[in-house]
Amino acid sequence: MKEKKKWHDYLWIFSLTYLVLGFFNILFAWLGLLCFFIPLIIAIAKGNKAYCNRYCGRGQLFSLIGGRFGLSRKKDIPGWMKSVCFRYGFLLFFLTMFLLMLWNTALVFAGTRNLSTVVTLLWTFKLPWHWAYHGTLFSDGVAQFAFGFYSVMLTSTVLGFLTMILCKPRSWCVYCPMGTMTQFICKAKAKK
Fold this sequence. Notes:
Layout: H1 12-24, H2 33-46, H3 50-55, H4 57-68, H5 79-82, H6 84-110, E1 118-121, E2 125-128, H7 140-166, H8 172-175, H9 177-191
Antiparallel strand pairs: 1-2
Helix pairs in contact: 1-4, 2-9, 4-7, 6-7, 6-9
């Protein structure tokens, strides 16, 4: 007998909607902060990885596309990707890219740099995204943050899709920076 689906089983729709909305209006990228803060809040408040295990729409999306639609080879993820060195190294790299994005946003807010209407995929490929921004009442820094944050979210989604295709559907979850951070928080809370 099939288990009845709960509301949180459909959070993959949020992840997919987020990516589509950001394609048409970059300011929707700010919604991605929910995926940044909620896992941290749950890990700090509850001391568990409930977000990763139950509420992560991106993980659900990978399960759906890789599992139900069969777009995954369903192979084990390589051991080196599971290693603590890789996971924390990737987290450090990701945080560095995030801090650079915040730095660029601060420069635009300060007026020392012009708004860059570009989404950078895999921190290398610049995709012109000018159609997704039509001005706003807010400072250009608001849009700069959106372009940068959408770049981070799109890049991590592409990496997740590649890992999903080559390995098991939720292989991204093994080295996801948010998962690594929440695991670190949970371990630190457990030691107390």
